[in-house]
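Hi support team,

I submitted a single chain yesterday and got back a structure, but I'm not sure I'm reading the token output correctly. Could someone confirm the output below corresponds to the sequence I sent? I've pasted both exactly as they appear in my results page.

Thanks,
R.
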Amino acid sequence: MFFAAGVSAYNVAVFHLFTHAFFKALLFLGAGSVIHAMSDEQDMRRMGGVYRLIPATWVLMLIGTLALTGFPLTAGYFSKDAVIEAAYAAGSDVGQYGFAMGVVAAAMTAFYSWRLIFMTFHGKTRASEEVLSHMHESPPVMLAPLMILAIGALFAGAVFAGSFIGEHSSEFWGNALFVMPDKNILEAMHHVPAWVKYSPVVAGFVGLLLAYYMYIRRPDVPASLAETHYGLYQFLLNKWYFDELYDLLFVRPAKAIGNFLWVRGDGGVIDRFGPDGIAEAVQRVTRRAVQLQSGYLYHYAFVMLIGLSALTTYYMFTGGAH
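Hi R., thanks for writing in. Yes, this is the structure output for that exact sequence:
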């Protein structure tokens, strides 16, 4: 969606946003159906081989996966392929880079999507006997929305492609989108080579076959690869250590600056010379004033005499001056 917008294929980007809503929501809600069926279990490593026990959820998740991976004639096929074709048709270096990364992303998406299906529903079960004994299909109130989304995941691309990016796109968009005359990507998309059109489909099948080999045919391969390439495995497992890097570059400096401003600025300057400083000065004055209140009558009489003498002296000198 982003690099489609980046090459001025705005209608293609919105079209993929539209179709993406169906199958991505279907997969999210389908995951919830699986979790509900498996007594709140969320770890795929503790699932497997349950498609016979929750067949409706399995079929609906399968439809979402097919659409997400751009399987021919699903909604994702029409929009995802259009995005990749638009990137190639842009003819710029950025567009070519986007096209290459899009094909790679299509293969990776297919791999992890089918990995989800194979680890969750197929192969030897890794679920406990207790979980399997309570496994049940989700109720209609949960499955009905999934079915509606599945219809969109299957047919939204074919039904709306003509309006969003096809022959009726001019009437559909009207003046909602403005593209420079030299950025007519829709026209250029129709003239890309055939291998460009087939590349995302081929990438999707490559991802499917690789996931099938690693999680159905040879489920021992992932563990063996992780052990053999332990450093790379840890690097990828920890998401390129992006969170740690972000913490080092942004979170810790921000906390240090905030702590400095809090202790030195707020506490050391503002509070010291502001509210806290004024309050402390008032308290010191009142403590001294309180000491004058001794409770002895002769002290009060002595103070009154001093005050009377001071007033008399003042008026004597000021009256004499006038």
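A quick pointer for reading it: The chain has two domains: 2-237, 245-321. Let us know if anything else looks off.

Best,
Support desk
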